Amino acid sequence: MLTAAEAGFPLAPAAHPSGYGCSCVRIGCPTPGRHPVSFAWQTQATADRAQIERWLRAEPDANFITATGRAHDVLDVPAEAGYAALARLEEREGAAEPGAEAVLGPVALLGEDRMLFFTKTRGTPEDEDEWWPCELDSHPETMEEHPGLRWHCRGSYVLLPPSRLPDDGQGVRWLRSPEPGRGLPEPLVLLETLTDACAEYALTADGREEAAPWPVR
């Protein structure tokens, strides 16, 4: 978690699993352990180590989210498609010339179902006119509406390792952890490989053909 902050990822505290539900006060929380604690999470999110340590002292069991669309975006795909894409991207990374543009950045596994690929963001405060909200792609609360690829940008967030999930012993974990000072890949560098893998996954998964993120044909 602190490694992510050192890499410049803005963090904010999130709810965590508690008993059979969520640590938040909402009765019947629909996303237990998966949402920020505060409605002001976008302004609260920071990479300041001292502030993150204060949050951890106040709530040692807290999960953490990272706000996307500021220092990074996240391409979020079904895990099976993610593993296939990751193998192809690592092969391409291994064949790249020294000093070439980054092919892969940090990659995390969300439970056993989703894989998160961290990329450069498509917008920053300096080019405000080029930003658009994440609702054009997906939002954390619309998981069932986006079974294929989701692009988390401005106005969205993802859980960071080592967050815990209800009824999941694995939680959120890094497959490739962030490295301070190492550049992130452009999202379009990953997008074709990820969408191809998602389309293949949609065709092979039983009853999932309609889940293709782009037209397969």
Summarize the structure.
A hairpin with a 2-residue loop joins β2 and β3.
What can you tell me about this protein's structure?
- Helices cover 25% and strands 18% of the residues.
- By secondary structure, it is of the alpha+beta class.
- The chain has a 5-stranded antiparallel sheet with strand order 8-5-7-6-10.
- It is globular.
The tally of beta strands, per DSSP, is 10
Report strand %.
15-25%
- Computed over alpha carbons, the radius of gyration is 17 Å
Q: Low-confidence runs (pLDDT<50, min 5 residues)? A: 208-217
Helix percent reads 10-25%
Count of individual helical segments? 5
What's the pLDDT, averaged over the residues?
85
Structural class: alpha+beta
Main sheet attributes: strand count, strand direction, barrel closure: 5 strands, antiparallel
Main β-sheet, spatial strand arrangement = 8-5-7-6-10
Q: Which of globular, elongated, flat, extended, rod-shaped describes the shape? A: globular
Write down the secondary-structure element order. HEEEHHEEHEEEEEH
End-to-end Cα distance: 41 Å
Present the secondary structure layout.
Elements: H1 2-6, E1 11-14, E2 17-18, E3 21-22, H2 41-44, H3 49-58, E4 63-67, E5 73-78, H4 79-95, E6 107-110, E7 114-119, E8 150-152, E9 157-159, E10 172-176, H5 187-204
Helix pairs in contact: 4-5
Structure keywords:
217 residues; alpha+beta; 5-stranded antiparallel β-sheet; 3-stranded antiparallel β-sheet; 10 strands; 25% helix; globular
